[in-house]
Design goal:
With 217 residues, the chain is of the alpha/beta class. The chain has one domain: 3-Layer(aba) Sandwich (Rossmann fold), CATH 3.40.50. It is built from eight helices and ten strands. The strands form two sheets. Strands 1, 2, 3, 5 and 6 form a five-stranded antiparallel beta sheet that branches. The chain has a five-stranded parallel beta sheet with strand order 7-8-9-4-10, sandwiched between helices. Helix 3 runs parallel beside helix 6 and helix 4 packs across helix 6. The longest helix has 16 residues. The protein is globular and about 50 Å long. It starts with a strand and ends in a 9-residue tail after the last strand.
């Protein structure tokens, strides 16, 4: 059964159609890649999946429930973890502090959040010294790992990532993809948006968006 489902989703921006009649199913334990040329609506679709935007028509179901009927704050802070293309980390905080802040926002009841943050960062390949460094002292690949650990801090069912390897070298890209693969193998639903055919080839399923032509005859 799909944990997340799109049913005939349409989205328009200023009356200009961006997405039309999109129906996709996403299951736990799988890694998906949403591909398409620039302007096809990939990032828009990710915004819809995360509840940051509302479809013009159609339904998005999480665990069988229409997310329009679910509190958006609860949805984004408990059930779905988002990894933004620009990471959106607080640069004056350490890696661990960024993860702890995410736990605080989600209302986590974990007693020793710092220890849990360090553990999560270790799981994505950062040691304790790196966990205690400020974000600007970390490489792009390390910051990506922090963003992944932050998204995992409240144990969501679904992980969404916007161009998660776009600014990384080939070796680091493969390491990040291995982390996503491990998450899927452990039962998470991992949904990536990417322009990279290499990334798409590493996923279980690929959904391709086609840019809507708005030309008038």
């Amino acid at each position: 059964m799909a944990i997340l489902s799109l049913q005939n989703i349409c989205f328009s921006y200023d009356k200009t159609p961006v997405l039309k009649d999109i129906s996709y199913d996403f299951e736990k334990g799988k890694m998906y890649c949403i591909v398409g040329k620039s302007g096809a609506g990939k990032t828009t679709l990710l915004s819809l999946l995360s509840g940051l935007a509302v479809p013009t028509s159609g339904q998005i179901l999480y665990d069988g429930k229409d997310i329009s009927k679910v509190d958006k704050y609860t949805f984004r802070s408990k059930y779905i973890g988002v990894i933004f293309q620009s990471f959106n980390l607080i640069t004056t905080y350490t890696a661990a502090e960024n993860v702890v802040l995410s736990m605080d926002i989600s209302g986590s009841k974990i007693k020793d959040k710092k220890a849990r943050a360090v553990e999560l960062l270790k799981n994505v390949g950062l040691d304790e010294d790196e966990a205690n460094r400020r974000i600007l002292k970390l490489s792009g690949g390390q910051q990506q790992r922090v963003a992944i650990a932050r998204a995992l801090s409240y144990d969501p069912d679904i992980i969404l990532a916007d161009e998660p390897t776009g600014n990384l070298d080939g070796e680091t890209q493969n390491e990040i993809m291995e982390i996503f693969r491990d998450l899927a193998d452990k039962g998470k639903c991992v949904i990536l948006v990417s322009h990279s055919s290499d990334v798409a080839d590493m996923c279980d399923e690929r959904y391709e968006l086609v840019k809507i032509s708005n030309k008038k005859n």
